[in-house]
Amino acid sequence: RPQSARRGGRIRMTARVPTRLDVRPLLVAIAVAAALAFFYLSQSTHVAAKGYQIDSLETTLAQRRGDQQQLILAIGEARAPAEITRRARLRLRLVPLEEGAITFASPASRPTN
User: Fold this and answer.
1) Second label for 11, Cα 20 to 30 Å away, from 18, 35, 59, 60?
2) Top-confidence residue, 53 or 104
3) H helical segments located in the chain
4) In 39-71, which positions are buried (b, 16+ CB within 10 angstroms) versus exposed (e)?
5) What's the predicted TM-score (pTM) here?
6) Is the alpha carbon torsion for 74, 79, 85, 89 positive or negative?
7) 37-96 pLDDT tens trace
């Protein structure tokens, strides 16, 4: 909209020159905000991936501990005297000795000098 200015009795019409709006700071702010948003998303994605990895490892660890407990139980059962006797009879076909089947030698006497 033209403005008028009065000088020395004459009216002079001047046109307002539109001023340029400097958008560089706005663009910098947008770029910084985008960079921060990208950094936040990458970090949150990384944390989520690590969380899934931890869950998977905890599940594997629980399974391994269960396997370990089963092996400890199997070892305990295999070492039991009743189980050893049963295996000796069934697999090896061993039988208990009769009374008196074993004789022990008497200790040797020491020679006197």
Assistant:
1) 18
2) 53
3) 24-79, 81-90
4) eeeeeeeeeeeeeeeeeeeeeeeeeeeeeeeee
5) 0.51
6) positive
7) 999 999 999 999 999 999 999 999 999 999 999 999 999 999 999 999 999 999 999 998
For residue 106, give both structure tokens: 């008497």
- Report yes or no: 16 and 5 within 8 Å, Cβ to Cβ: no
Residue reference for tokens 């663009």: 27
Lowest mean pLDDT among 2-11, 16-25, 49-58, 67-76: 2-11
Helix (H/G/I), strand (E/B), else coil: 93: coil
Looking at residue 42, its amino acid is: S
Gap between the Cα atoms of 28 and 24, Å rounded: 6
Q: Is 8 left (phi over 0), alpha (psi -120 to 50) or beta?
A: left
